[in-house]
Design goal:
Layout: H1 2-21, E1 32-44, E2 47-57, E3 69-78, E4 87-90, E5 93-96, E6 98-100, E7 105-110, E8 118-125, E9 128-136, H2 145-155, H3 157-162, E10 164-165, E11 168-169, E12 171-179, E13 183-191, E14 196-202, E15 208-214
Parallel strand pairs: 1-12
Antiparallel strand pairs: 1-2, 1-9, 2-3, 3-7, 4-5, 4-8, 6-7, 8-9, 10-11, 12-13, 13-14, 14-15
């Protein structure tokens, strides 16, 4: 009878060991709290337009904890001269822009989606008006935000391992598309201590170009 009584115990032990061995790996992509995946640009004769399309947490706080995400379009405009009022329209979206003295430009954000290779922008500035076509910086062969994050995970696996406890990643990840005569990604890994490990990733090859530690 004792031998038979031991069988269920052995089965339970083997089941527990099997469960530990098959523990589901952490999907670090679930912890991305900012994804800037679109940029459209225009610059000519003193008029400069930058459009960013992102999905980011709300409220946006660098605290190592991912919050609920929302989609956002942000537009920055530099004009040949300063105006008291500037109205922007992109299709059915837009509104009055705010002056940002620090960046010396006008700014507006809205939830409406901007997409496509070209974006038509119309500006009403008092008695003046401007129209232009902002062009997407994306081109064939450029990876997406998830791809850039995967490159960083592969490059610095020890960092992600050190920030993972009991199957939970104790941090949040930022992935922002950048453009400077080519596409790049800024990937930031923020811990609960608010310190950030930052990486510059080549948008085509996935090579880590530079790294930096930013302490809170």
């Amino acid at each position: 009878m004792k031998k038979f009584a031991l069988i269920p115990l052995c089965v339970l032990s083997l089941s527990a060991a099997f469960a530990v061995g098959c523990k589901k790996p952490v999907n670090y992509l679930d912890y991305i709290s900012e994804m800037r995946y679109g940029i459209w640009l225009y610059s000519s004769d003193g008029l400069e337009v930058k459009i960013y399309r992102s999905s980011k947490e709300t409220p946006y706080i660098a605290d190592g904890i991912k919050s609920e995400m929302c989609d956002l379009t942000e537009v920055y405009v530099t004009l040949p001269k300063t105006y008291d009022e500037v109205e922007l329209s992109i299709g059915s979206a837009g509104g009055e822009m705010n002056w940002q003295a620090v960046d010396n430009c006008y700014y507006i954000s809205f939830a409406d989606e901007v997409s496509g290779d070209n974006v038509e922008v119309n500006l009403t500035c008092g008695k003046d008006s401007y129209s232009c076509t902002a062009v997407s910086v994306l081109y064939g062969g450029v990876m997406d935000c998830n791809g850039a994050v995967k490159c960083v995970i592969e490059h610095d696996a020890e960092l992600f391992k050190s920030m993972t406890e009991n199957g939970i990643f104790c941090g949040e990840i930022y992935a922002r598309l950048l453009y400077d005569e080519g596409c790049y990604y800024y990937v930031g890994v923020c811990g609960r201590d608010k310190n950030i490990s930052a990486y510059l990733v080549d948008g085509e090859r996935g090579k880590i170009i530079a790294t930096k530690k930013i302490t809170a």
